Sequence to fold (120 residues):
Amino acid sequence: MAVSKKFELVLESLTKTGDIDASAIVTRDGVLMGISTNINKPETFAAMSATMLGAAETATTELGKGLPNRVIVESSKSRIIVTGAGPKAILVVLTKPTAGLGLILVELEKAADKVKELLV
Fold:
């Protein structure tokens, strides 16, 4: 099975988790590798998601606090969660603002591990 099809399966599975509206796999430099649903301007979404995580990694490293596990951006209409998926990729989910984070974070980590394995 092609890697792109495996990415689709990971994203489909992740998006079935309650309150996740969309998910994407993005390279560390912001190139979209896979997306689960239509997002307005997906390339911009991918690039800015990578930029957010990269900025957080730079800030925490400069402070000597290690790498962040994830970045969470909250608004009144949604929540964006970005996490690393190995040295080559990141995983991004878009959730409802009221989504419970417990299950989402567990499933996000599982999906990130799968993506990491696919890119080795």
